[in-house]
Design brief:
Elements (H helix, E strand, L loop, with lengths): L6 H22 L3 H10 L2 H21 L7 H37 L1 H22 L1
Helix pairs in contact: 1-4, 1-5, 2-4, 3-4
Protein name: DUF2065 domain-containing protein
Keywords: Membrane, Transmembrane, Transmembrane helix
Length: 132
């Protein structure tokens, strides 16, 4: 089991792995993110389920992470969790317009978003590894 001070690093590690894996998937199969968002935008049940999952994961991260104002990683992870909660609420309340906006943003620069996601993933993984 992780120690209290290691929890932000573990969360950063898994978020980094997620971001890197998603980026690799998009780079290997360009357009998959746009197709996924298209599916979300046109499927009410999938939007609802996605909103609940994002909200629940964000709440879990926010509540489990031991907030320490002296630790920048702890603050960052707390903000990430709160951002996920907000995103989940927005998907639940304004799913179609929000996902249409996201689809328009991703559709124009797929490769750039994937590279940004890969870079963020690598940074989060490295930060986490330096904390262990």
């Amino acid at each position: 089991m992780a120690e209290g001070q290691d929890i932000p690093a573990w969360i950063a590690l898994f978020m980094g792995l997620y971001a890197l894996g998603a980026a690799i998937g998009e780079l290997r199969s360009p357009g998959s993110w746009a197709a996924m968002l298209d599916g979300f935008e046109n499927n009410e049940a999938l939007r609802f389920l996605t909103g609940i999952v994002v909200l629940a994961l964000g709440a879990a991260i926010y509540l489990v992470n031991p907030y320490d104002p002296a630790d920048w990683l702890s603050i960052t992870v707390t903000v990430m969790g709160a951002g996920m909660v907000l995103e989940g609420v927005v998907i639940l309340g304004f799913g179609r317009p929000f996902l249409h906006f996201a689809s328009a943003m991703i559709g124009t620069v797929n490769r750039a978003w994937a590279l940004l996601s890969a870079g963020l993933g690598i940074v989060l993984i490295c930060v986490a590894m330096l904390r262990f």
